[in-house]
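Tokens in:
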């Protein structure tokens, strides 16, 4: 496909999608670097063997998977012009994002209260805190993008064939969801 062909709108659409994918690749490399540092640091003498993963991290895993499904349902409803249904799914997705963050902090509380580890008291849990907080920051960015989509949807800016905003937000949302699935499995198998 020749990327220089097409209308100005088509070119802008391709450019925005490409910029998002460049961002996703760079964010993926950041998480790869953080998890690589985690693996290398496991050889330290002060590393906690068999790192305990909080149960709330598993609950957040379920929430994030469900949020990916609700985001996809929202996108399909908006594309099909089913505005009320689209609004419902968008709001549910945003609420699930809030619930995810809440479960993450309950996981931190569990680490501190049950295991007795604060952020800077142990290198193992410091890595866990940092990686999870970086992920939460990206989820907040996705939630801000989702709020823009919700606002634009209320203003009826998405019509048949003009749904780029929700498509980009959905792609980023799914990426952030995938990152948490990866991180959860990583922490589970490389503790």
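Residues out:
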């Amino acid at each position: 496909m020749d990327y220089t062909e097409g209308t100005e709108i088509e070119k802008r659409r391709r450019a925005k999608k490409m910029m998002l994918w460049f961002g996703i690749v760079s964010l993926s490399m950041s998480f790869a670097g953080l998890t690589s540092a985690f693996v290398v640091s496991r050889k330290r003498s002060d590393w906690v063997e068999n790192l305990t993963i909080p149960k709330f991290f598993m609950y957040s895993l379920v929430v994030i998977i469900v949020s990916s499904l609700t985001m996809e349902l929202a996108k399909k409803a908006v594309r099909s012009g089913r505005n009320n249904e689209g609004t419902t799914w968008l709001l549910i997705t945003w609420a699930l994002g809030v619930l995810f963050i809440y479960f993450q902090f309950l996981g931190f509380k569990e680490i501190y209260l049950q295991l007795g580890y604060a952020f800077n008291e142990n290198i193992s849990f410091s890595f866990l805190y940092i990686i999870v907080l970086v992920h939460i920051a990206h989820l907040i960015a996705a939630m801000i993008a989702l709020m823009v989509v919700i606002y634009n949807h209320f203003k009826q800016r998405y019509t048949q064939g003009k749904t780029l905003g929700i498509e980009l937000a959905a792609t980023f949302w799914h990426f952030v969801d995938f990152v948490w699935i990866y991180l959860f499995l990583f922490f589970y198998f490389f503790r």
